[in-house]
Specification:
Blueprint lengths: L10 H24 L11 H20 L24 E2 L1 H5 L7 E5 L3 H12 L3 E5 L11 H11 L4 E3 L2 E9 L2 E8 L2 E2 L3 E3 L1 E4 L14 E3 L4 E6 L2 H4 L6 E7 L4 H5 L6 E7 L5 E8 L6 H9 L4 H5 L10 H11 L10
Parallel strand pairs: 1-9, 2-3, 2-9, 3-4
Antiparallel strand pairs: 5-6, 6-7, 6-8, 10-11, 11-14, 12-13, 13-14
Helix pairs in contact: 1-2, 1-4
């Protein structure tokens, strides 16, 4: 009997993460240069990239539906560069991941996972990216400390314009001219080769049951209660922040701006919320998801073996700080 392993074949997800992997490779090369290993600038062969993405997407679709033909009529439509009807100037998600061309300058309008991932992809490919958000945070559903750390981390990659309002929108000589205000102050008009419009579905996510993961640089993850939610609840809780600069692995990887944040119910000591921000945070996020799902206590986490040197140790140390037993970092008073 065939077993359905996926509820549907999300070919868009495969394409997006392939692009993010390419972006990560470019960032790794640039990071190596900063450590004294010099490489030449990446050469972007757009047509070849498009063909490889189309092939990957088609192969995934075939693999996903070969044993479960009943899924064939319920899968996401393939977003190949050949069948997308591209608006040259205004992109939504499908247009952006089709990689129609690499703009010199791109405006990303909106916040959330899609906005940041598209910005990450094109910035790595050489595009200058401005992100226009209506509020002050790129991830409105997450806590302020996560947003603050993330925005400090990426300020060299993107220009973020908070409390932004588009006051005029004009097409001029195959480009888009935007008149924008930020924090109620008018900014000089800007010319963009393309404008990406992000939707706001991320902000509707139920963080108590659905993991949040933005595969950007750095990656941002979260599951469970946030401080924003707990502020209006009757739960007693304690927050532990463990900066990655205390980890040997983060220091050798030049990845010290990261942060692991855990929230414990202070009555029964169970983990009720947690996540991390930093390069490769997605590789250790599964432990947080497992611990929350199984109602692990800080003691359960602290008595689980964590290999050294790894980023996983940040979860161990955060639990030990909560318990007051940490020996590598200062404990909470």
């Amino acid at each position: 009997m065939n077993t359905i392993t996926q509820p549907h074949c999300n070919t868009r997800m495969i394409r997006t993460h392939a692009l993010l992997h390419m972006a990560k490779s470019i960032h790794n090369i640039q990071a190596a240069t900063a450590q004294g290993i010099e490489f030449s600038e990446p050469q972007i062969h757009l047509a070849l990239m498009q063909r490889q993405l189309d092939t990957l997407e088609s192969q995934y679709y075939v693999a996903c539906t070969s044993d479960t033909p009943e899924l064939a009529n319920t899968t996401d439509s393939s977003v190949t560069s050949a069948n997308i009807s591209t608006n040259k100037y205004i992109w939504h998600y499908n247009e952006a991941i089709a990689l129609p061309f690499i703009p010199t300058k791109l405006a990303v309008v909106g916040s959330g996972i899609a906005a940041i991932e598209i910005a990450t992809i094109y910035q790595a490919l050489g595009t200058s990216v401005d992100i226009l958000i209506t509020g002050d945070e790129v991830f409105p559903e997450l806590d302020k400390d996560i947003n603050k750390t993330f925005q400090r981390y990426i300020k060299r990659l993107f220009k973020i314009k908070p409390q932004a309002e588009i006051r005029a929108f004009n097409f001029i000589d195959n480009q888009v001219q935007l008149s924008v205000s930020s924090k109620k102050k008018s900014l000089p008009d800007s010319i963009y080769d393309a404008v990406f419009i992000a939707d706001d579905t991320d902000s509707q996510r139920d963080l108590l049951t659905q993991p949040f993961m933005a595969t950007s640089f750095p990656t941002v993850t979260w599951l469970g209660w946030t401080e924003k939610q707990l502020a209006s609840s009757a739960l007693n809780y304690k927050v532990i922040n463990l900066p990655w600069r205390s980890l040997g692995r983060a220091n050798t990887d030049v990845n010290t701006n990261g942060l692991t944040k855990l929230i414990f119910n202070s009555d029964d000591h169970t983990l009720i919320g947690g996540g991390m921000i930093g390069n490769n945070a997605d590789e250790i996020f599964g432990e947080v998801c497992l611990a929350i799902h199984n109602k692990f206590t800080a003691d359960n986490i602290a008595h689980t073996v964590h290999a050294h040197p790894t980023l996983h140790e940040s979860i161990l140390l955060a639990a030990e700080v909560y318990l007051g037993t940490a020996t590598d970092v200062l404990n909470e008073v």
